[in-house]
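Same chain as my last thread, 410 residues:
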Amino acid sequence: MEAATRNYLVVTGGYWAFTVTDGAIRMLVVLYFHMLGYSPFEVAMLFLFYEFFGIVTNLTGGWLGARIGLNLTMHIGMGLQVVALAMLTVPDAWLSVPYVMAAQAVSGIAKDLNKMSAKASVKSLAGADGAGRLFRWVAVLTGSKNALKGVGFFVGAALLTVLGFRGALAVLAGMLALVLVATVFALPSGFGRMSTKPKFSQVFSNVAAINWLSSARFFLFGARDVWFVVGLPVFLYSVLGWSFMLVGGFLAAWVIGYGMVQAAAPQLLGRIGHGRGPGGRTAKTLAAMLAVIPVGMSLALGQEYAPAPVLIIGLVLFGVVFALNSAVHSYLVLAYSDAERVSLNVGFYYMANAGGRLAGTVLSGWAYQAHGLEGCLWWSAAFVLCAAILSTGLPAVARGTPTGANRLHG
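reply #2:
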């Protein structure tokens, strides 16, 4: 096995393990604190620092990875996630809103260090074999990650049922600590480090395509989280009367399916780009298609159709189109980047991603409390429409191995 493929598999395996804990802790916090009597808006506030510090981490993490190496930033992220899990094992009397927000801040830093490191690594590992290999590897990494986040939702709900809140956290922390030790020995040191030490001012992209893409990414992920993070699980549990296991299993199945579609995006999108991978027009078209789905769901709920079938059918459609759109974004940020600057551009791009998640998370709790799930869906439609408009500024990718702005054409 060539070294690049071996390192790609190690990075992917570490990312998988981390992702299971990330999905599990999200489900554990939403369900456990709702059970303790927290309102939907208060539950959303628990994730405020998780998303806010994701913005900060992505802004600085790409710069840090370029200076010290992507393997080291990935391992720092894993270590911080173990700390975040351990912080939540304290007695209930300690679990005040500020304390849980602080633990979620640590988890948010950990998640985005790990994600930035894994995604940026793919650009270096794909080498000079062109856009086709890059699109395939990015799609598999991102899609499998999202599928395993869905597994994490189910694992979190199952562990909460079987072991309780603190037992679940202990199991997750122990598992991730073992993976951390294994990947420390498996990856070469200094991996992904730039040949020159970048200045902090270089974290802000001067490539127009990266800036347009990051803006579209903000609204795309805000559109998902504005109804998926708090509104949907609370609606399923409190309005439809679903059990923890059923809520966790359903959301897990959705995210797993979403991840599978994302991993299969190169095949599902067919010959778009004629072997060069998709371009900006693909992202714009998919966003326009996606905006129709939450509108239809909200109108159907307003007409008092049975909510369970509306949500199931709507979620399937939303998941397929959203997954394809997200996969195209994940490819484009690497295709638009020079190999030397990839960690900086990926960090900037995921800063926008985290900003969208923050906006969506806060709005999810407020919109659900004020206007119910229908209100969340209308916010989602507005966000996707903004993403579609911003995607009109995205160029196509030039032929050959993409290396940045000098390889783009409109």
